[in-house]
What does this fold into?
Amino acid sequence: MNMDYVRQSLELHLFFARIMKEHSFFLQLGFMPRDIDFANRADESRMEFDDLLRDVVFISQGVVSKNVLNSGEVITPFTLEAEEVTVFYTGVEIPLDITRAEAKLVDADRDLIDSSLADKVSRINDRAIRLISELIRFKERILQNVLQCKMFTVNYPLLIDHIMREARLYLNLVKTLQEQGFINIRRNPLKQEAFWNRIMAEHSKFIRGLLDPTEEELFDIADDFGNTFDRLTKEALDAIDHMVPFHKVTRESLRATKAIRDFKTQATEGLLDCNIRSIIIPLLGDHTLREANHYLRLLRMFDK
It folds into this structure.
């Protein structure tokens, strides 16, 4: 295993393990008192990903790239405060030490690695595959129950499907690393753009649906983003069939993602400052901002 394998694995987990632990947390908050067993299982999943992320951060010092650390996909300037406020609102103890440790990470200072680090990363990847697979099955069970009217949750069915698709992407990427030792990020960029454009569209729709009815101006902005990213999703799929030029889709997606990143930044600040009326937990705002930052980093690579 080479440096690319170690670095790509750790960078993948720094982004996605945090996303997964927050998915579990959002699921946990959405259950009714009757479904306490499901809430407890979601809490267990969250803590398992906490432990995974903590171990990843510990061995990432001086190994991961500056590009990823500076992208805003690992943490943002708001992550720690969003966690603190969310702890206050919910009473759920989120381990803030992980975020503080991530803020102290420095980028790669070596070109070679020893075999023991590669072995540690391989074990972390195997552990992640198990945890992600379990979480996917849990999400599938919840969605099935909701669609069959066997369970009520405050999370939209589309949101449960949305976070299931993200988990499946994470799982596929970790499996690729274990099987091939490397991920070619620039392979099939249009498929990746179609995936993330759909994610951005759904974020817009979730934000719109969780705003207070009085926030009419924000409704319009969220609706516009939803429509834009729906169109860009279709264009990315059309470009795969050579019906639309590839670079046109990438550059339009880049412009739109920069715009929604700025909107999510302002929204997260507004939630933290109590200036937006909604039922959006502040950590959800920061969560969607990190995903926009991750997609922006990919788009800049595709645009080159």
Residues 1-183 form a domain with the Ferritin fold (CATH 1.20.1260.120).
